[in-house]
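Incident log, support desk, overnight shift.

02:14 A customer reports that sequence design results differ from what the structure should imply. Their input is reproduced verbatim below. On-call engineer (initials T.W.) acknowledged and began investigating.
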C-alpha cells in the first residue's frame, strides 16, 4: 500500500493551524484588563475626575482592572458612564491586548440655579449637578424655578451664552411666577425687566443701545428699573 504523504502533510498542517488558533484564542480570552486610560474631550475637563470615571467602570460589581478581557461588556460600561449627570457623552474601547480606554465629553454649564436647590443648567437645557472640583462662572438663576420645567430660563440663558455682550455683563437671571424674565448686569444696581421671550432679539438690541448711550452719558446709576417689555421702546424708572 502506497502512503500519500501529501495528504498527511495537509492534515498535519490543518491540525497545527487549528491548534495555534485555539491557543491564541484561549490566550486572548484570558488576558487581564489593564488600568483604564481616560481621555477627556473638548475644553470642559474640570467637573469630573479620572478617579470618578474609573469608579464607574464596573463589571460584575468589581472594577474592570485585572478582570479577564472576555467578560467585559463595553456597552454596559458606556451605559454606566452616560448615566452620570456630569457626562454628556462617553465611549469605551478595548484593544486586542486588553487595554481599556474611555473617551469622556463632560457637560457644559451655562447657568446655575440658586433657589432651594442648587444645580447647573447645561447647554442642552438639562440638569447638571454642582461639582466639588470646580465652580463654573455662569449667571445665577433665581425666582420660580422647577427642575422639570427649565425651558424658558434655558432659552434666555442660551441667548446670554451665545451673545458676547450679554455673556460679559449678565450676572443674574430671574424667572417670575408668570414665567417672565428679569435680569441684572455687572456693576449696576438696576433690574432689567425683559418680559416674555417674544421678539427677544429686538428687545436685546434695544437694551444694548440703551446701555451704550447711558454708559457714554454716565447715567447708568440713575436708574432702578429698565423695562424692555415693549419691543419698540425702553422705559426707564429713575432711582
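02:41 Re-run completed on a clean worker. Output:
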Amino acid at each position: 500500500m502506497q502512503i500519500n504523504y501529501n495528504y498527511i502533510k495537509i492534515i498535519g498542517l490543518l491540525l497545527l493551524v487549528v491548534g495555534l488558533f485555539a491557543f491564541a484564542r484561549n490566550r486572548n480570552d484570558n488576558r487581564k484588563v489593564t488600568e483604564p486610560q481616560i481621555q477627556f474631550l473638548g475644553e470642559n475637563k474640570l467637573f469630573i475626575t479620572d478617579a470618578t470615571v474609573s469608579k464607574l467602570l464596573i463589571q460584575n460589581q468589581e472594577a474592570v482592572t485585572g478582570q479577564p478581557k472576555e467578560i467585559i461588556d463595553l456597552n454596559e460600561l458606556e451605559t454606566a458612564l452616560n448615566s452620570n449627570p456630569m457626562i454628556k457623552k462617553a465611549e469605551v474601547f478595548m484593544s486586542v491586548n486588553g487595554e481599556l480606554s474611555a473617551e469622556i465629553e463632560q457637560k457644559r454649564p451655562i447657568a446655575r440655579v440658586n433657589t432651594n436647590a442648587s444645580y447647573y443648567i447645561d447647554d442642552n437645557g438639562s440638569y447638571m449637578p454642582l461639582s466639588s472640583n470646580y465652580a463654573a462662572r455662569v449667571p445665577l438663576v433665581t425666582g420660580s424655578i422647577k427642575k422639570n420645567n427649565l425651558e424658558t430660563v434655558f432659552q434666555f440663558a442660551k441667548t446670554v451664552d451665545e451673545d458676547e455682550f450679554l455673556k460679559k455683563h449678565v450676572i443674574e437671571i430671574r424667572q417670575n411666577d408668570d414665567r417672565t424674565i428679569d435680569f441684572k448686569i455687572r456693576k449696576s444696581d438696576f433690574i432689567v425687566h425683559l418680559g416674555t421671550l417674544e421678539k427677544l432679539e429686538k428687545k436685546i438690541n434695544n437694551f444694548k443701545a440703551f446701555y451704550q448711550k447711558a454708559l457714554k452719558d454716565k447715567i447708568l446709576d440713575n436708574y432702578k428699573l429698565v423695562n424692555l417689555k415693549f419691543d419698540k421702546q425702553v422705559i426707564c424708572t429713575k432711582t
